[in-house]
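Teaching assistant here, posting this on the class forum so everyone can see the example we discussed in section. The complex has four components, and the goal was to see what a joint structure prediction looks like when all of them are supplied at once.
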Amino acid sequence: MKLSDFMRYKDEVIKLRRDFHMYPELGFEEERTSGIVRDYLNDLGITTRSMAKTGVVGYLNNGGEKTVGIRADMDALPIQEENNVPYRSQVPGKMHACGHDAHTAMLLVTSKILSETEFDGNIRLVFQPAEEGLNGASKMVEGGAIDGVDEIIGMHVWIGFPTATIAISPGPVLASVDRFKITVHGKGGHGAAPQDTADPIVTSSELIMALQTVVSRNVDPIDTAVVTVGKINGGTAFNIIPETVEMDGTVRTFTEEADKLIEKRIKVISEHIAKAHNCTADVEYLHLNHATVNDTRLAEIGKKVASQFTTVVEQGRAMGGEDFSEYASRIPGLFAYLGIGNPKKGFVYPHHNPRFDMDEDALPYGVAFETLMALKLLQ
Amino acid sequence: MKLSDFMRYKDEVIKLRRDFHMYPELGFEEERTSGIVRDYLNDLGITTRSMAKTGVVGYLNNGGEKTVGIRADMDALPIQEENNVPYRSQVPGKMHACGHDAHTAMLLVTSKILSETEFDGNIRLVFQPAEEGLNGASKMVEGGAIDGVDEIIGMHVWIGFPTATIAISPGPVLASVDRFKITVHGKGGHGAAPQDTADPIVTSSELIMALQTVVSRNVDPIDTAVVTVGKINGGTAFNIIPETVEMDGTVRTFTEEADKLIEKRIKVISEHIAKAHNCTADVEYLHLNHATVNDTRLAEIGKKVASQFTTVVEQGRAMGGEDFSEYASRIPGLFAYLGIGNPKKGFVYPHHNPRFDMDEDALPYGVAFETLMALKLLQ
Amino acid sequence: MKLSDFMRYKDEVIKLRRDFHMYPELGFEEERTSGIVRDYLNDLGITTRSMAKTGVVGYLNNGGEKTVGIRADMDALPIQEENNVPYRSQVPGKMHACGHDAHTAMLLVTSKILSETEFDGNIRLVFQPAEEGLNGASKMVEGGAIDGVDEIIGMHVWIGFPTATIAISPGPVLASVDRFKITVHGKGGHGAAPQDTADPIVTSSELIMALQTVVSRNVDPIDTAVVTVGKINGGTAFNIIPETVEMDGTVRTFTEEADKLIEKRIKVISEHIAKAHNCTADVEYLHLNHATVNDTRLAEIGKKVASQFTTVVEQGRAMGGEDFSEYASRIPGLFAYLGIGNPKKGFVYPHHNPRFDMDEDALPYGVAFETLMALKLLQ
Amino acid sequence: MKLSDFMRYKDEVIKLRRDFHMYPELGFEEERTSGIVRDYLNDLGITTRSMAKTGVVGYLNNGGEKTVGIRADMDALPIQEENNVPYRSQVPGKMHACGHDAHTAMLLVTSKILSETEFDGNIRLVFQPAEEGLNGASKMVEGGAIDGVDEIIGMHVWIGFPTATIAISPGPVLASVDRFKITVHGKGGHGAAPQDTADPIVTSSELIMALQTVVSRNVDPIDTAVVTVGKINGGTAFNIIPETVEMDGTVRTFTEEADKLIEKRIKVISEHIAKAHNCTADVEYLHLNHATVNDTRLAEIGKKVASQFTTVVEQGRAMGGEDFSEYASRIPGLFAYLGIGNPKKGFVYPHHNPRFDMDEDALPYGVAFETLMALKLLQ
């Protein structure tokens, strides 16, 4: 198949994307979207199964030993769109500001093309809900979405690359996401009598300074890591030393080793900075997402497939998180970017911005990549 | 006059105190209390004037050049009483937990005795509202309560001294009270991209550590000072670096010099710690109360007067604040403590505690001190 | 005895002081000085005993149960005098820059007057070496200098008070002096590989910030305390993280309670800040001098005695240390200041300054105080 | 040419390396070594020129437009060897503990082979002194060593890779090296009177904590950076607050952008932390070495050349510095590693360790790479 074979579907993929764009739904609420997906697949004769509340899995089974998965996410964001376009969001306060509308549209058209193509093997079409902070992927895995799948690919439209380029790198491309909550328990009292208290505000301040050393001293500088305290809250009055201070933060890494090291360091630092000041510290540490690590062989193949019809660039690393890692940490996976940025047309606003939009000319390239990649992996 | 001359009024002062105790009123809401005060004074033939909303001033003028003031405060606290006594508070959520009920009762009886005594000179009876954090005293001063007054005395019942002892020291006895609000303005952004932000949480943490050096390094160790941050608040989510962090705190000192130094240091530290981290800091600095400084001569006289009928001890310094300082910073003043602590009777709970109560045997001693001191100062 | 009885000795006390001034000797090297003292006392018929290397004790025993001690210190400082006076130091690099020359001269003349006076009781004349940082007093105590002594007085000339005033306060007047040495042991390594080290420089920095909270948060603000790190030393090269960092500091307090609290806090903070950063901390804590606390009764008597012939002022507190505390912590003691400051004559340079000098007109007043106080205490 | 063509020189390259190993010379003192180099090249008929004190450049010019450089460094380290081998260092306190003996030996043999080979173009043989911290490369550049050179290659033996593997990566492979010296000027004084001082020890401690935020907050986490304070020094006595504290540290980065950002941040932080505490800070910032960045095209070619005769691996990044960057920042360069690690033979001790040694079986592979790479680049 050549690029022109996919260009024929350009209008359809854009039409689908715009429809999803106009009716955005938040995570685990993708009723309308998943209904459209299910009907579309069923109309193609593809068996579907629902899972993870609003997730849909399509089974395009031609027999044979190998199964390849392709994944799209369907959820929107709680953002009020500020674009004035005919297809702007019709739902106040909700918007497809990350491009999942395009992901869903592309995978539907890919499904159509694949359903009309002869190949040996099986293709698993994974339409998942709730990628944005809710880890819908883990619910899909629990539901059996990738049972029997050998390899999986995913795509993300990306404003940082020019229209229709495809970006692929082997190894880690998106960071793991952890969350930590630290509560420092001191002893409250009158602000004029600090000697009768154990001041959790001063203790937390020192703790936050000490946490800076995790990245500056403890993590291998060749590794990449972030430790951020995003929230701090303590006290009710200017003249009362409070009992407790609460902090809430995030950790990003690309390796299991760095991740474990940081968790341990945060716990040790919290314990002892607190003890130094007659306080105690509770640390709750949650691993939300794994790092998204591209399989080296799949990345190699992906580069070859994409370079047949478009420009391929290095993807590099980003500190953002993706629950595609739930699949890619279990089976070989490839998460590639599709360039949608086009300054001449004004497509420059970053993801999650109220003015985010995309150069839709890119979409047939995404369909091409998904289709050709799946077929290649089944050869 | 001898102590026995005052003991005759013991039942009356206790009865008055218990009545006020049962019907506590918060600052600037002392309608019932000030009504009783006004009627009581008028019944004695003492002219009164209302000011500062619920304040009452009585004029006991016998002519002559000198005028001596005596001050009592009348307000209660927003605390639910936990004592089971016949005279417990009848108002849910309000309680005379600092002893102002006793102050009002003592000054009424003092007024009665003085109105029945021959002396040359004038006595100003100052019943003020809203001592607890609202600086009712400043409103009384504005209203003219101490216009023409040469010297003023005040008393505070104090659980830390045994019943009926009187504590007096020359010089500073209660601290000045300042409040500072610091807002650190940074640049918000994604928690995974600190390089694009100016992190106000880390900056505020370093600022709070730096503020510790004001007391540890900048203030003369012979001086006494406290700098407390009682409240810190910043951020809305674990993975977002916020725009701002807000801190709210208090400063206590006994000298003008230390007070000015600390204000300046807080401003300089805030400005430059913020600048070091590409942030800015707004500092709002409010001087709420002056230090309460006893006039040396009045303290000397007070000790002699009190030692005629009870035990006199050194008062020492406390970091708490008092708006009696509004008077004592304008004219010579003496603020003395009357011991009401009695572990055998269970009177041990600190001021502002829901179980605070007092050994009422002390009250006639307070009346004696006020009466004899006023007469002594008019000789 | 009247002041004029002491004024007769003015020339002698000045002559003696100037002689000592010209030949200053450092701590435990006061050979010449103590030889003069011994001879002087022996010539008066006073028995002497040597102890603490260069200390001399004189025994003026008239029998009776009570013994009163008077103490002078004799050592000079390693400072090059910059005054151009006839009696300037003849010893390069050494100078009586703290006034111990006057202390010795005054006590000699006091000894002479007392030896010519009738009284009941015994007087112990304590001439000690090495007050400046070497704690000669403790050696005198070990040697038996105050065995059998009931009460002891000492005087210090003081540039901060005008000539001939005498300053006395009850309670603590000079601080206790402690020394602490903290060694932080980390793990050294290449400066480009912090992940393989435990960085003792960062850890020590955080430790020093945490130590600021001892004074700002832990000590009662009414108490007076200082915690100073005077020295920090770690590392040999810009690109090597060292194994250890050493810190050396001092603590000043006026109460045993604050002293113990601070020692404990320094140890707890050091232990846990080190642990937070995978380091360990050794803390060596030395109590060098007690606080100098004047006995209340002796202070009362001292004020009365001094006010017979000169102006008496409050002494206040100073953070400096004095080994007179070695005596005053064992038996009731009184350490008074004799004013020697006189701006008109140019006597304004502080103690330990190369231009320090004194208004010698004050010296007979010191002799008077020592003499009259000793006699008063023996009555 | 095949690998066996180079294996014939194995004995010679080992013999040369051992000779250099036995007589190590420090930077700019490589008299004996450079003498041997000069004679060896001259014997081959290669013209030489001396520069940079003990540097030697050989000119193997066959005409043509292109010139390719090959660089070896010759200096040893001030380390006492602890190996017991026949060829151990004969010079007390000096040792080839980084493998420069092998670099020199390999390039000599490469020169011999190339001098016996027909090719078009010119080869520049760069034997430089003083790579270890003295930046001998910059002196060679000043001397004209790479004037007219189009591309340059260098090799470093590396214990972290198995014998005879060759490690190559495009882009940055070794960090830039900066040095910063910060002097905090405060106001000294007595340790008991911090209020009269500006304490540079506390200020420096806070400064060091603030410097941690440069890596933890300011540098893009995808970039790699280190900021280390290796040395801190201030104060002379436990009870004196000093005037100044001196710090000395290093910065490592891989990009010009990160390097400039860090220099700026260190200066801003130092200025304002100092100002916050009434101190001033002097910052001296020195750029010692650029990052060593491999040219992408040369890396590509290098991988192909090396994979003809040995295993090629990714080189990755290391935070160490190399003055090869002096060449590679001016003309396209390639700095490759030659594996010499062999646990079975005990070759496991890291570079700069007194027991460092190498598996000499690797050396003919290094000769092969240098020779074949030079010839390839001249084609």
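For the discussion questions: The interface with chain D takes residues 192-195, 197, 199, 202, 206, 209-210, 213, 216-221, 268-269, 271-273, 275-278 of chain B (CB under 8 Å). Chain B is about 35% helix and 25% strand. Think about how each of these relates to the inputs above.
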